[in-house]
Amino acid sequence: MSTKIAIVGAGITGLSTAVCLQDILPEVEVTILADKFHEETTSAVAAGLFRPDHISASDPADVPRWIESSAKRYWSLYRSRDAHLAGIFQISGYVFSNDDPDLPAAKQYRDFVPNYRQLSGRELDDAGGPWRYGCYHSTVLVEPLIHMRYLRREFEKRGGCIQRLTVEDLSVLHGQFGAVVNCSGLGARRLVGDDSMAPVRGQLLRVRAPWLKEFYMGENTTYVYPNSESVVLGGTRESGEWDVTPSKAVSDSIMARCSKMIPAIQDAEIISASVGLRPWRPTVRLETEILQLEGDKTLPVIHNYGHAGNGISLSWGCGVHAATLAQEVLLSSGSVVH
Question: In terms of DSSP bridges, do strands 298-305 and 285-292 run parallel, antiparallel, or are they unpaired?
Fold first, then answer.
């Protein structure tokens, strides 16, 4: 079996997985195959706050491991000399809700963010309140475009190869690569016939509001997340919608909801409106499949997709898991040794 591995997809998940593979299997040649990069990817639209939630996996025990691994990676980068280059900084802020106590409870991730506390009293009157539930915590914000460029530089510096290529059938990669990691996101619906994949449309605005230093999150996917050069206002969750053209009516709704939380936002200059399609699946798919090809040929495929709106929050943890599965495949074939 070849000691070359292909990764299909160059969003945040594909790039993270590529670097994880180089960490775990430094002797293996890794190639990224993708038809979209950087600004062209769904990852580029993401707001970037590390706040994983509503994650399901076939093995529930995997979820906290993915979250912990990603959290350790991001906090380590934040405390390193590469923090600025990687587009990672610390930010603190508020999460509010009237109908969903689990939203501020943050059960899936609060052990991995500092300064977590429940809000009470007058604090619940802020940001468009009164609210019934709320919390305050610090976390990291990962600016997607900056971080993807950082990962690509790291990948290429270690000898990784990148090809702009539309992969329509994984079987054509047999003979060129000993294993394939499928990080195609929503494209998995076509690539591997996964009809459980569905888009969840998200629209957001970027505005100039340099006075804002904390994040705010309310109900109905309403949030205000400061980035280094803009403030991201969101958002929407429209299941089954494929249209990536920004809607003025939706933009007006986002501005109205965010302005109710932070009144000064209503006068902020709008820089852009963007739409991304979250790659939703009932559970994240992270597993090994052995494709049976013509004759007795086989192709090991490690699937790593279906992260919905948690792509940035899970990218490193799932990348480590996928790389470990690839290592197991190559070890079992004798292509690599301990």
Answer: antiparallel
